[in-house]
Design a protein that fits this description.
It is elongated and about 45 Å long. The longest helix has 13 residues, at 102-114. The protein has helices at 16-24, 44-54, 75-82, 102-114. Helices cover 34% and strands 0% of the residues. With 120 residues, it is an all-alpha fold. Helix 2 crosses helix 3 (75-82).
Length: 120
């Protein structure tokens, strides 16, 4: 589909078809009120939520209590921790609301695609 229901994803952009596909598959649902915000930075939790949904939204019962910000994470983040897709940061924090860096994205994708023991 070359048209997205998000009012800020115009027809004909390089990302329009991909956004529409991911929306149709239930992998993304935007940022609210018909918006996707394609130029906004993405958080660590938002990105692992995309991967979690792409994996079928599996149940994850991970013990994340050792992280100081464990109360701030969603099921998707617990799934990512349990499966070694994402790890904590300095200071025993998961930093779910932190902006995802390119380096983190690359490492997360390697772990997601090839397993937590894969060399980056």
């Amino acid at each position: 589909r070359e048209v997205s229901s998000f009012n800020d994803v115009p027809t004909g952009k390089y990302y329009t078809e991909a956004v529409s596909w991911a929306e149709d598959k239930g992998i993304i649902n935007g940022t609210g009120v018909g918006r996707f915000e394609p130029t906004r930075f993405i958080t660590r939790q938002e990105f692992v939520t995309v991967l979690w949904r792409a994996s079928g939204s599996p149940v994850a019962e991970a013990d994340v209590s050792s992280f100081g910000d464990a109360e701030d994470i969603a099921d998707a983040f617990a799934w990512a921790v349990k499966n070694g897709v994402i790890t904590g940061k300095t200071g025993d924090k998961l930093d779910p609301s932190g902006v995802l860096t390119r380096a983190e994205l690359a490492q997360i994708m390697v772990r997601y695609l090839y397993g937590s023991n894969a060399a980056a």
